[in-house]
Write a structure and sequence with these properties.
Length: about 120
Amino acid sequence: MSKISPRPFGPALALALRGHCPACGQGCMFARFLKPSPACDHCGQAWDVSRADDFPAYIVILLLGHILVPLMIEVNAALAIPLGAQAVLWPGLAILLAVAMIQPAKAAVIAFQWSRRMDGFA
């Protein structure tokens, strides 16, 4: 029986958040903004076997709610921003934050799956 090498999640997460291959740290994890590379161009680890599905979007939605709702409450308590300006400000900020957070969230989910040998990463 062969010994399975450990895949610690911490280093894999750190590499994935920077867009690097969690397996070797050299290749790129994503071919496009949210499309994982078919395989690492350095070590050959396949990334298109990942089944992240909608989980990264759920993570982003949860984080956005926890960031924006308290921020909206505090800003409205401290400043008298007109309602029309708020109708542009909060959705615009939500969109910007969602776009900024979705790729790191997907990278984290894929790195977790890889480190735990889930789905096609066995």
